[in-house]
Model the fold of this input.
Amino acid sequence: MQVSSASRFLGMGGSVAPDSGYDARARMVISLLASIVTIIISSVEGQLMLLGASLLYALSIRRFKALTIAYLFVAFMMGLATLCTWGLSSVAPFVSFTFKGLAVPFMRGLVMLNVVLPLALTCRIQDLLTVLKGLCLPFCIYLPGAVMIRFIPTFMNDIKQIAEALQIRGYTLTLGGMFRHPLLVLRLLFTPLLFRSLRTSEELGIAAELKGLDAQSRFVPYRSPVWSRKDTLLVAAALTVIAAALACHYLLGRAPVAGHM
Amino acid sequence: MIRFVNVTYTYPFQEKPAVRGVDLHVRPGEFVLVTGESGCGKSTLMRLANGLCPQYFGGTLEGDVFVGGKSTGEMPLKDMSRMVGTLFQDPEQQFFALEVEEELAFVHEWRGTPAAETRRKIAEAAKEFLLEDLFGHSIHELSEGQKQKVGLASIFSQDPGALVLDEPTANLDPESTVELARRLDRLKKSGMAILVVDHRLYWLEDVADRVAVMREGVIVAQGAFDMLHDGALRSACGLRAAHVEDVRSTLPESAPPTKGPRAGEKGLRVDGLRFAYKGQAPLYDRASFWLGQGVTALIGGNGTGKTTLARLITGLNKAQEGAFRINGILFPVSEMLRHVGIVLQNSDHQLHMRTVAQEIDVCLALAERLRGWSKSRRSREEQRHFLLGLFDLEHLADRHPQSLSGGEKQRLVIACAFAKKPSILILDEPTSGLDGGNMKRIAKALSLLAEQGACVLVITHDLELLRASCGAAIRLPLNGN
Done:
């Protein structure tokens, strides 16, 4: 058995992918609701409520390593975005730069991360695809959606393998080194990642074609998803959090935040 | 069943055709083997047979490819895939689902097969390929050989009229290879048309009805399997041996010079190794082994833990217990990577620089830093030229590493590992998917490294490599298990 595995690395524990405990539809409903509400809410107070609740939701799947890595990656991207905005504002004064102004978009990103990770890491890909298919979406929307969901574990596995390859070569990536040689670090991390991602997307496209995924296919699941009371409670809890977040937004945080959209 | 009529195909943005003037017919109940050196157009031929070229990859097709009497240009890929089952060289390329059971069921679900029928088909396929115990496993966790079996099981469960297999045994152990040959023979006799693209020839001696040898996109020879016994043809077209002796049972066991560790002994000694995956029975339980100077093979069936052992030695996976001694000196696991080089099969993940030459330069510089060497620029350039020559990469020195073919990338990552001048080097299936010329090149390079005093451990199912370069063997399961 090969040692390196996305799921083990991602803290899936053991070699058998665990049952998420919730129906994929419940997780999808939560992701959908979160995506709508996080756009509606533009106050820090409301976003904080969403962020806290969604973080608890993400922690509940106990994939701590995966969550940490995802957060580190997002933190890195946010750092880059902050640097770019700061750079832009210093050369173009009409671009305003405030940390508070960036807070809401960043929190929106984190909320989505918190709801999408449980969806991607605990739900069976087939269940997600079944739900997507059941939504009767146009195939041109369905297929990219399915490929995106399928892409996540492979992408994370690639990150792990690239880090391991650097270790084998003898590179020691330190925080100081990242600042001293940012271009080298970017090259080391992103060159293989970029090419792997391009290759993965092509491979998934080929796999989809050869397995006969298309708009006209009649899909017959060999295992039907079961909606339980637990799923109803999860969605009800999500609705309660959304109501609380909206209340926070309208009661506490309606003052516009400078510099954000 | 599959017919190529004067086919010339050119990929988009390429001037030179990948295949030229190909005429080939695979009839129902016939088994045709296509072979040739790397980059000769074999895989393109396969993509033409399953319709991916030009339907998915684009490009220009001249001539006609017929499957079941219909032109591939007139059929959607979905319908083509029902008629032609395809196995890629890297089976992960064709997986869409994430778990073994789902992957086996996926295609049937999308074909509208009733659930009970799907269950029956995947149960049969799993039984046939001994995959029942892997049903709930993630495909990322499987060994390469297990992935190949899942890919094959998925195709076989679909009952296609024709099979197109690209290097189907690249990661299979010899026993599974023999079993696959038997299975293909049965399918052939039941009327299936089978087209196999492979570098390894010996396993098809009793199965292939016809062989087509390709060179630079053209079929240069076609005939019965016996023609592959012609040494001149094999040498001219970079082919592997048509008959290979299995030396696994005759290779001496890798034995330590003394029973207990001794200062100054040359080699790697591992004692009391213990490792288990979370929630599973121990894979290694107080196991011990010795890796001496020379080239040693690590032998074991698919999924027996060969790659795991390599990762434990290098500390990429943490052993629960175990003492690691190099040349008699005890090292903590965390320091093993400083002394042990390892080449895994994921070459895509290991290439970062702009050119092949830079990739090697960086490895030489890293090795100097690691060992505290101080070398002149000229000495480094000489070293780079030597490595490029040793692995036949000189003509690719200015190419971007990610633009190389799979075999070229494989040679480059091995060259990078050589740059480190490790006293211990572990290679995981270094010759899977390589043609005869490159297999010999790798074997020669390993022997050279061993002559310089290194201990080389090769994880391989490649009987030709075993015969060409290995002088001893470590067999799994290890003692103590």
User: Anything to note?
Assistant: The CA atoms of residues 185 and 221 of chain B lie 23 Å apart. Chain B touches chain A through 75 residues (CB under 8 Å). The two ends of chain B are 50 Å apart (CA to CA).
